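Please annotate the following for my students:
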Amino acid sequence: MTKPKNDIICDYDSATNNSAMEGLPIRNSSVFRKFLISYVIILVIPSIGGYMSYLTSISVTQSISIENGVTQLEKGQEILERRMAEVEGFTRQLAVNQELNVLMNERDNETNVYGIWRAMENVLTFGQTNDFLQNYYIYLANYNLILTPGSSYRPNHYYADFHYTDLSLEEWMNQVLKQTHRSEIKPLSSYVSRGQQTSVITYMQSLPLDSFNDSSPAVAVVVIDEKMIVGLLSSMTDRYGGWVHISDAEGRTIALKGSGEPEMAKMIDDPKFDPNKVSQFYEDDLVITTQSDSNGWVYQAGIPRDLLLENANKIKKMSMLITGGTLLIGLLVGLVLAYRHSAPINRLLSVMKEQFGRDDGTSRNEFDFLSGNISDMITKNKLLETELNRQLPLVRDAFLKRLISGEFKSRDEIWSAAEQADIHLHQGAGYAGLVQIKGYGSMDNVDILNELNASRLLLKQALSELGANVQMTDWGSDKVATLFFSTDEEADTQRTVEDITQIMDDLAQVVFNDYRITIQSGFGNHFSSVTEVSDSFDQANQALEYAIHMNERGMVWSSETQTENTTYYYPLDSEQRLITTIRAGELEEAKRIVEAIMVQNMEQRELSMEMKHQLIGEMKGTFIKLLDQKAFTEYDSIENVKRRVIDIGSAEPLETVKSELYEIMEELCGLIANKKKDTHSQIVKQIKAYTAEMYSDAELTLYRVAEHVERPEKYISQLFKEYTGVNFSDHLIKVRMDQAMILLRDSNYTVDEIAARVGYNSSHSFRRAFKRLNGISPSVYRQTPYE
């Protein structure tokens, strides 16, 4: 009993399409939002991981940059301290120089020109190994003379070319030349050298080294240009564009580049700045600080944050671009997938709410609502199936009664009803019979009726146990109608008659011996189509009446009865079936109806000439009525056909009339067949065109095609197979594979992309279908050379 289920499915599909249009937009549904939120969460989780990785990369890059800065600053510090140590070593060498000691110890007033020249020659070579010693001089107090690598000057003459802008001549002589110095360094000062202004630091050492008086015999002074000092740290300023500051232990500036004294003082005084930290961010700079263990000098370098994190910023920019693009694409894909996955659920929800009402429970979500209603629907469907199975005997009984009574209008209607009643008609040919239980003349009380019900039940049970292929139904209170269907298409009619006769004889003997029930039966002539069952049953009823009237025993065939008829046989139901059959284009069925009418009138009746003329006139009238119907008036040739019907002579033999009617029916059924063929051709063309347009849709099904052409799904499935010789599913696969081969040859799409473009959700399914149809995989096909 599958028919009710199919009906339910069809109703559901129809309601789905209708209600989906009436519901809220899918994008506003909670199911869509839940799907979308799930996809967004899936996107956010790896994005968080990527962000953590980005922070780690920034931290590592920053640490490496800081470490490199500290290393460069310490290297510059090391070189500077080594150079300053060389300057100190230079003064110690001067202290032990013999010529210089002689000059320092001379007390006469005469100038020892030769000694001075010798001293100048000896000290001239010291400045060639250290660029810090390019500008130095020695002041001899006893001669009041300044010795330089190139010449000798009086203090006032030397001051004219080389002097501090903040010291006068007297101040310079008192603070520098005439004081005792023990490895003293004058901090950064403005200095004029031969007319060019610069900034220098000054290293001063009194000679000899053990001088403790307020004045010493000689003073060695080394003037070091600030540019030479900061040049040792040029990698910090040139590479990063930052600043460098060197100060002594008292905080006085030794060298400064890239910034100014006020900025340095502000930074040192700022409580936010910690001078003890090796590296820290101050305002927009990374400040690196180191301190010398030997002289207490503080080395500081400032690197702009944006330049320091240049590589990190590149990573940041790329990370933001990639992450942003990925999130945008992922969000778009999430929107598409959320819509695609929520659409069927929303349509199903719409149908459920339309069919079963809205869910009253506010705490239940959509999935609980679906689960509950689907479970309830399955339960009701099972109950319905159980009820249908329980009522199946009633459905079968009703079908048999309608079939015997001739209530069906066409053969297709009979076959459809038989399928619904789960009755096998086999080839649609056989014999109709009527069995009566004898001995119940008066049926006016309940006891007799109950006994008859039991007797009919026992009779049908006994007939079934005899193994006969028979369909049975009660006919009145004391009769059982039977239909014996032939299982073999070319069964021998005589043998079938003998078999039925034997079965009925055995039945009479069994029910009499076991239940003391006596039966009488009558059978009609053979029917070759299910539309002739009622005629055969009428004959069986007449045969049974004849047997009872003649007091015959056993079973009686209609052919055994003596019929004396003076009227022709042409019942109204036969006329109606003939008209319906021709309009349906069923030529063979129409011929069988006409043949049955002719057999009844030619073989079983002796018609007078008048009755024969009336019969022919009646049949001609039937065809005239048929040709006046709308189904035929649209054809131009109908007038010729109508003329042929009118021209049939009443005096012609019935055999000749039958042949002429056959020819007319062939022409009419041919017109109907051509019309059906044209209609079917158009439908098949629509199906092919729609398939060619929508093949890339993975959800393209026969149901959607049926909606498009506005025909039942089962109808177009059979029609397409009959017209093209292939199933629709095979045709759809062929269309998709043809398009796939074109893309494989003429495009650079991957196999997975091609699978999606030709309507496959799974690339694995696409590969399997392609190889099954073409014998090779898509990859091999793409690599195969083409002519």
About this structure: Residues 68 and 299 are 15 Å apart (CA to CA). Residues 1-26, 359-363 have pLDDT under 50 and may be disordered. Residues 30-95 form the longest helix (66 residues).
